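Hey team,

Filing this mostly as a record. A colleague (T.K.) asked me to run one chain through the structure pipeline before their review meeting, and I want the input and output archived in the tracker in case anyone asks later how it was produced. No errors, nothing strange. Just documentation.

Input sequence:
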Amino acid sequence: MEKNKKICFVTINSPPDFLGGYVLYHKNLIEYLKKRYKHLEINWVYFGKENKSYKKDGINYFELDGEGAISSFTFGRSFKLYRFFTKNYFDIINSIGGLWTYLYKKKEGQKIIQTSHGAIYYFNRNHLRRFSFFKKILFFPLLPLSWILERPHKETDKIICVSDKVKLQVEKLYGRRKNIYVVRTGVDLKVFKPGNKSENRKKLKLEDKKLYGLYVGGGGYWTKGLDRAVSLGREIYNLNKNFRLLLIGPNYKKVKHLINEPFIKFLKDVEREKMPLYYSASDMFFNMSRYEGGAPTLVTSEAMASGCLIVCSKDSEQEIVKDNENSLIISEFGKKDAKRILETFNDKKLREKIIKRSMETIKEFSLEKWGKRTSEVLLK
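Output structure:
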């Protein structure tokens, strides 16, 4: 790689302090690049409350004003990104795509690389199936709009997909391309690993004798299947009164109608540094999404590395997660699945076998291996 190259990452709707998977993906990748490529200039553009630029920990940040009637809409933000990249040169631009790429004329020697964490088209289509006839008509325009928003620019040099499923979906939507690479997301195995469950529960002020399930993610109608996790948790609690479900991540105002249950412990504003403790203090991890791009998602991989019994919804389709091998995959979220989960957990030999295979699986997706592969696609 040549020295002094400038790379710019784009997160349209998420600032760098957001703890969602998309931003954490960038943070992990940037940390790898900083260690491996000393002469690479790293830049990050995102939308916030004002126009400003600053430098922190060796990274150049550009905040664009995303407030106001126009800027808060996709079209307004796309135009601002178009103007930003027209005025500022970077050797490599890495984004999820967007309407701004339709307007932008790539400069000589520049590369545009699109990363696809999942196809919004299929995400929206899955949710439309839940709606009544009239709601389906009302929200149907989301499908063509989502097709347009993620359509690769004709000058896109490479597309990185986080799973084979996402690659297949991108090709179905936009046609087959030679420049598509599959790089499954890595996990920091030095940070996320099994710990002393009793000691970690003591640190977190959790009761040592309880059975803890963990849910991490958003909780709105369109997001990570919190309603399913609560429904499943209720059935587990009915069978075992020691069960507790730890919730990390949801907006309380949006989910308070769902989580008024005796078995739920809502945890507000958990620091990222404490997440390894919560994973290793939990007995099982729930990913109940109706759609996921990751194979597995970042939080699922962190839970796998931490020694949790992984429980995933069938329609999240996380590829490397296999039923009764390194996880449990369920589809009904009721008494039947609750009984199966408890029976598996209480069977020590079976539980340990599944967890052992889960940890062996995730070792193949270390941060170092992922960072090396991703940087090769980005920089070469």
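Quick notes for T.K.: The CA atoms of residues 101 and 336 lie 48 Å apart. The chain has two domains: 6-186+367-379, 197-365.
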